[in-house]
Request: fold
Amino acid sequence: MGCGCYSHASTEKDILRVAVFGLENSGKTSLVQCLKTSNKISKTFKYISTHGVIAVNVHLNMQTNINLLIFDCGGCKHQRHIWPHLFNNSDLILFTVDSIDLNCLNDAKQALFDLLTDENLINKPLLIVFTKSDKRKNRNINQLEQALDLFMIQDRPIHTVLFSSITLDGFTLISTWFAYFSYCKLHGKEMKLSINRHSSSIKYQLPKSLNLATSSTMSSTKDIIIIVRTKEQQVN
Ligand SMILES: Nc1nc2c(ncn2[C@@H]2O[C@H](COP(=O)(O)OP(=O)(O)OP(=O)(O)O)[C@@H](O)[C@H]2O)c(=O)[nH]1
Ligand SMILES: [Mg+2]
Reply:
């Protein structure tokens, strides 16, 4: 899976590769669209379940350029066999969890812990994005973290954020998270954040030279769509 499609960035080091995993309907595609357009999704955004993987180029301009190649994966059970193909190809992992659908939390936890057992993902920074925060104000992120047993994950940096594609709450935090790791990759620094992972206390120790603005603007380039067919589809 090459990324010769990127026109903003000149070298591999300039591009952060980000895989977005999570159950179906958990808001992956909506999040990616927000990042790509720097805009909220419309309330009438129609849910079309993603098949295969869509590679989306995103260019964040936060006074410094951040070039992302985001892999938006299908989250349905029969699509998840594709996820491991992206493990080696990604610098960062985003995992979306629907913060409203409490019935799905157990399944989300199972899918997340299955991911974390894969040796190709060890040491890869992970951001858990609790989506749809607009649907219930003042959602307690600690309760969500506990429901997912995140305290059991001790072997890698994990951060969490509440996010809404409708209001863009959490957007700046996510962009800042990218900015940090983009800086690390560009300067060959180890991708580690030794900070309290609770979103309420995320204070990224960003290098001063980044001089981040509080808001970001983005533009995008053409996406490529990578269709990975399931075995059944190949037979037909
Ligand atoms: N209210 C609200 N709805 C959201 C939000 N994010 C996503 N949705 C809705 O949730 C549904 C599913 O969103 P998608 O982004 O397509 O979900 P997905 O994780 O990509 O789903 P799959 O492609 O099937 O894996 C859509 O109807 C969205 O409009 C959000 O932040 N707030
Ligand atoms: Mg999708």
